[in-house]
Amino acid sequence: MAVLTGAGFAVDVRLGLMAMVWFGFWLINAGLSESRSPWARRIVPLIFGVTLLLLWEMAARLFGISRVILPAPSDIWAQIGQSLPILWADFLQTFIKGALSGYLIGCGAAVAVAVLIDRSPFLQRGLLPVGNFVAALPIVGIAPIMVMWFGFDWHSKAAVVVIMVFFPVLVNMVAGLKATDAMQRDLMATYSASYWQSLFKLRLPAAMPFLFNGLKIATTLALIGAIVAEFFGSPIVGMGFRITAEIGRLGLPMIWAEIAVAALAGSAFYGAVALIEKRVTFWHPSQRH
Amino acid sequence: MRSILPILTVLLAIVGIWYLAAIWMNATWVRDQAARDGREVAFSELVVETLGQERPVLPAPHQVAKGLYDGLFGQKVTSKRSLVYHAWVTLSATLLGFAFGSAAGILLAVGIVYNRAMDLSVMPWAIASQTIPILAIAPMIIVVLNSLGVTGIVPKAIISAYLSFFPVVVGMVKGLRSPDAMQLDLLRTWNASDVQSFAKLRLPASMPYLFASLKVGVAASLVGTIVGELPTGAVAGLGSRLLSGSYYGQTVQIWAALFAAAILAASLVALIGWAERLTLKRMGLAR
Fold first, then answer.
1. Is A47 at the interface with chain B, CB within 8 A?
2. Closest approach of chain B CAs to the CA of A261, in angstroms?
3. Which class for A3: exposed (0-12), middle (13-18), buried (19 or more C-beta within 10 A)?
4. Can you give the residue range of the structural domain that contains B21?
5. A124 plus A47 within the same structural domain
6. With contacts defined as CB-CB under 8 Å, which chain B residues touch A47?
7. Residues A26 and A125 occupy one common structural domain
8. Distance from CA of B264 to the nearest CA of A (A)
9. What sign does the dihedral A35-A37-A38-A40 (CA atoms) show?
10. Residue A278 sits in which domain range?
11. Percentage helix, strand, coil, to 5, in chain B?
12. Min Cα–Cα distance to chain A from B45, Å
């Protein structure tokens, strides 16, 4: 390691400095990860992230990389601070109007269809392979068609999101509705429970872990769908629009700022769904640590 | 085998709904034209005219099939109008990126499983990265690399590598950790070295997980390549066919490109599924 740092210095002082920072932090992390304490688990990834940001900043500053190619994290942070209103408007347009409304409609429709086709084994055998097949296709490709049909505003983005999230949620929900075993269903039958009673008291709760699996996959898909659909045409607001527009002006810090917002929104969305899952499926073994 | 009939029924129903939707969505244009010419359209004429438009709102299935057939077999494969040419442009970038992305993913997974510091540092970020719409950075990568003078297949391959990388890391780590303590202890009682226990236990045990994540990864790779073809201004590739179709209102072209992409994705996933069956069968893991 000292050899490597030395070699870095021999080639270039700046490279040597960066190598030193990297190995220094790595030593700390290697030391910390030996300890079994629970807070090491939390702090080690944080240190790693900070190291990467630091190296990025150093690379951009020390080597004088142009802002047009790779802006430093501090530049991006400054850009975020400057353009909060724009970022907020883009967030509202893309995330709240486009992604979230499409997500709710798509997931709702998928759950409803799953409950409907659950009564017919024939439909299940037909729809499930088709659904599985469609779930693997590059569905974002329908974005230009939806933009043509529903116009440039958020409706077309929501439509893309609806189609993107529908199939993963459908496939998971159908699997979930099958998750009860014969003994449990027999018990409901001995209570002389009606179809709806056993649906609401037994099968829907039992399907929740599967459903949330699909819902969590769908969070990422929703954001991707909403952003990519904006590449095909949008009003002059929105994250995807801002990215394409700033590419034309080579405003890289703004693009990175949008990406930071998208990353934050994506993780928060996933986290929120995961939190709801924790509250709803508290009884499931995977939630009991 | 017994699900053939239901699947066919569902597919037929989809085609039927599609035809009805095409008639319904294209009818406005036909009625407008008729009103302009001052003539009445009977229902039968309406149906015929809605299904044979040049630029329909929703092309009928047979129009898409014809567009697809013309694109695939109607011209020389080197022609710029040939879907085979565009599909090959997309496929080559996808395969290059997927090969590098999944190889790097497997290597990182091995590192994560054998090095605790790496596990604690990298793994949370690899998992978190799955919740981030990484695809949004695709246009930026293309444009930045373009300004550095890197053009052609490489920028697209980088995006597709990046997209296939994280699913493979997460799946492979899960797979390499799937042997339980009893099995690992058994190898220890045989005094197996780390390399031996990797080659004889961990690697074989990880195969089902690896193939599952490869399927996810290759689909993501293809999407990444298609999106990566958007900002370069519609030069070549299935993504550019989508974009130029949407610029010029060529709906049949969009749908044909979309179906070509779907066929490509399905064959890639099927290919990996075939390799999976073959491998698992040879290893005696097939169910």
1. yes
2. 10
3. exposed
4. 4-55
5. no
6. 121
7. no
8. 9
9. negative
10. 80-287
11. 80, 0, 20
12. 24
Pairwise CA distance, residues A235 & A61, whole Å: 36
Q: Could you tell me the two tokens for A132?
A: 């599985």
**Gap from B231 CA to chain A (nearest CA, Å):** 8
- Report yes or no on A183 lying in a domain: yes
User: Do residues B260 and B161 share a domain?
Assistant: yes
- Taking contacts as CB-CB distances below 8 angstroms, the residues of chain A near B230 are 231-232
Contacts of A33 in chain B (CB under 8 A): 116-117, 119-121
Residue A151 lies in a domain: yes
Same domain membership, residue A221 and residue A129 = yes
B269/A136 CB distance under 8 A: yes
Considering its fold, how many domains does chain A have in total? 2
- Residue pair A59/A15 in contact (Cβ under 8 Å)? The answer is no
Same-domain status, B202 and B106: yes
For residues B30 and B22, the answer to whether their CB atoms sit within 8 Å is no
Nearest to A154 by CA among A110, A204, A199, A89: A89
Three-state DSSP state, B250? coil
Chain A residues within 8 A of B258 when measuring between CB atoms: 141-142, 145
- Whether A114 and A194 share a structural domain: yes
- At residue B90, the 3 state secondary structure works out as helix
* pLDDT one digit per residue (tens) for chain B, 287 residues: 667 888 888 888 888 888 888 888 877 777 787 788 777 777 777 777 777 777 777 888 888 888 888 877 777 767 777 788 888 888 998 999 999 999 999 999 999 888 888 888 888 888 888 777 777 778 788 878 877 777 778 888 888 888 888 889 888 988 888 888 888 899 889 988 888 888 888 888 888 888 888 988 898 888 888 888 876 655 788 888 888 887 787 888 888 888 888 888 888 888 998 998 888 888 876 65
- In this structure, the number of other CB atoms found within 10 A of the CB of residue A249 comes to 9
Q: What is the Cα–Cα distance from A7 to B262, expressed in whole angstroms?
A: 50
pTM for the model: 0.83
For residue B287, count other CB atoms closer than 10 A to its CB. Answer: 4
Preferred mutation among B10, B26, B91, B174 to probe A, highest tally of A CBs within 10 A: B10
